[in-house]
Amino acid sequence: MLWNFLKDQSGATAxxxxxxxxxxxxxxxxxxxxxxxxxxxxYNYISSTIAEAVSRR
Length: 57
Hints:
Layout: H1 2-7, H2 12-55
């Protein structure tokens, strides 16, 4: 019974998809963390430029 359990690979695909999903998730979180400050600076620049252009009208 134990030998049959060890040879059974029916759940291997689900585990592989779970690992791939977790790696993609960690990559996204790392990218958001790494580029978060520069993205915030970009949006602040765009916001201030638009506000300045609207106030000149």
